Amino acid sequence: MSMHKNISPSRDEVADPAVIAANAHAAEQADAQPAAVSPPPVPQAAGSSRFHESARAQVQGAATYIDDMPELKGTLHAAPILSTVAHGRLLGVETAAALALPGVRGVILAQDIPGDRMLGNFSHDEPVFAQDTVQHIGQVIGVVVADTVMQARRAARQVQCHIEPLPALLNVRDALAAQSYVLPPVFVQRGDADAALKTARHTLHGTLEVGGQEHFYLEGQIAYVLPQEQNQWRVYSSTQHPGEVQHWVAHALGTDQHAVRVECRRMGGGFGGKETQAGHL
């Protein structure tokens, strides 16, 4: 329909029959023409917004994380026994009080590991559970296994760890002075920096400390393990590196890697913190 039919005529149109006839003829011609067809949209190679594969399930609360999985009857829960000393000699662990609590099924320490007691990383210098020494507050000395999470946590707090304190390095400056390194130092050098500084017109002296921290994931470290037939294991792990979890689990159990199956459907964040530590868990 022509737009002219929806516009009030001016006084000149009313007074001039020729103008009225010309407008009517133009309106008829416009109505007779077919409507313009818009060309189909051209797909964009970049800049198009797409939903994440799990977005709808996540906003509906239907995306399953490991803690949402239904637990099989007989599932046991583990809670870690943690060091309260930054550096010390581990003299002994008393577990009688923990084992006497309701629901507690056992305590697992380093000597109970059937395979290698050291984690299967490339440096082979980190124990699964602390053995002769502890090297930081929160180091895992063992785990308590119980029927429920709270029973395991309460029992873990009842384990008595006898630790003889040793001198501790608590900041980077002291560690550098003692030449205590996590890994051998790596230097990137070009030219003679000392000689250049001696001949520089201006020099600055001082220290700079940066307090930045890595971002943290909302979902903590978690795993759900199912024993399978013929000494095989199925591990549901929140990990960025299922292959490394498989390697570490098989290494600690003293079994072949093909006997350990690791699955990760999704994670509640990782940022690099669930590559190796997920295997420890």
What is the spatial order of strands in the main beta sheet? 1-5-3
What share of the residues lie within helices?
10-25%
What's the quaternary structure here? single chain
Share in β-strands: 15-25%
Listing every helix as H and every strand as E from the N terminus to the C terminus, the arrangement reads: HHHEEHEEEHEHHEEHEH
What is the number of strand segments? 9
How many separate helices? 9
The backbone outline, from C-alpha atoms, is flat
Q: Tell me the major beta sheet.
A: 3 strands, antiparallel
Return the average pLDDT rounded to an integer.
89
Structural class determined from secondary elements? alpha+beta
Radius of gyration: 35 Å
How far apart are the first and last residues' alpha carbons, in Å? 72 Å
The low-confidence parts are 1-5
